[in-house]
Amino acid sequence: MGGVTSTIAAKFAFFPPQPPSYAIVGGEGGGRRRLFVQDVPTREDIDVLKLRTRRGNDIVAIHVKHPKASSTMLYSHGNAADLGQMLELFVELSNRLRVNIMAYDYSGYGQSTGKPTECNTYADIDAVYKCLKDEYGVKDEQLILYGQSVGSGPTVDLASRLQNLRGVVLHSPILSGLRVLYPVKRTYWFDIFKNIDKIGMVNCPVLVIHGTADEVVDCSHGKQLWELCKQKYDPVWISGGGHCNLELYPEYIKQLKKFVLSLNKTRTNTIGSKKTDTTTSDSDSQTKVSDGGTSDTFELAPDLPEVSRNSLDSRLEKSKKSTKPEKSRMSTDQVVW
Predict the structure, then answer these.
(1) 45 given a catalytic annotation
(2) Which of 61, 169, 271, 288 ranks highest by number of CB atoms within 10 Å?
(3) Is 63 in the active site?
(4) How sure is the predictor about 45, in pLDDT bands with cuts at 50, 70 and 90?
């Protein structure tokens, strides 16, 4: 059976970009680290961190801050991308959604040490989560987990262990590693990223986004995961969307914004209810209604411009005749057949 495990790992593997698309500059003598990406302006307002995981690896993470953010998004990318390829997208999402974004490279990706394995990705996301709690003061109620493709694995794993998350976004997610390759009806011990068995333990609203023409991870993966969610949010099935180009469709940013806004409103209403209940119990003659303020709301800006990342298999992705404005920076997921 060990041979079967090796076969699965070989077919559904990790493909860190080689060489890494970025370098870390500065940081000597306690100075500020910066991410250097060719042809991308260096930004001084992004925190570049090195975090030690429980498995002994040092991973790179970045924190993109928005001045009016009321929530933080922890983003787990696909299996053939690194932070340098994703940087512009993270900045764009932070601006459009008005959220802080924390993203990281898995062990063995970019400038992170170690080797990429399923277990290491779980340790990686745990280290980033701990940093958000300890260094940035982020509470679970303020945290949105975002997992794209293979990144849905560590995302669902962490979400299944936390009780008070604000929300989860699954972008072209997988049921499990084996199910991407074979239409199996049960979970085997050697399978990896068993989202199908964990999604039912996620206790917050879940948005699923999947392209109907995804040729790497069939849309049925997203649909089945959505059916298994406890708190279903209206899913987004992007007609004609592939595995790597969903950010190019206007529905992507529009629906993602609506989801984030709905979470902010839900959170505001919950806090308002608690305050009202407390006030009522303290004084029957006085009732206060919580005002959510303006920090949790935003205008729907124009649709996402023609700049985004492609999340997916550059070798499997065929150029489709669509309304795609232009080819975006590649952040590919790869499956070897």
Answers:
(1) no
(2) 169
(3) no
(4) confident
DSSP class of residue 301 equals P
112 is catalytic: no
Task: Answer yes or no: are the C-beta atoms of 57 and 123 closer than 8 Å.
Answer: yes
Query: Of the residues 82, 214, 218, 313, which is catalytic?
Result: 214
Alpha carbons 329 and 320: distance in angstroms, whole number? 16
Contact 85, 309 (CB under 8 A): yes
Report helix, strand or coil for 28: helix
CATH number of 2-279+291-331: 3.40.50.1820
Listed by start position, the domains of the chain span: 2-279+291-331
pTM value? 0.81
The closest alpha carbon to 78, from 213, 235, 244, belongs to 244
- Residues 149, 172, 308, 328: which is the catalytic one? 149
d(CA 318, CA 109): 25
Q: pLDDT of 57-76, one tens digit each? A: 999 999 999 999 999 999 99
Contacts made by residues 219-225, CB under 8 angstroms, sequence distance 24+: 221/173, 221/174, 221/175, 221/179, 221/180, 222/170, 222/172, 222/173, 224/175, 224/196, 225/170, 225/173, 225/175, 225/195, 225/196, 225/199
Q: Please write the tens of the pLDDT for every residue from 271-299.
A: 555 554 544 444 343 333 333 333 333 23
> Which neighbouring-strand residues pair with 329?
309
The residue annotated as part of the active site, out of 243, 296, 311, 313, is 243
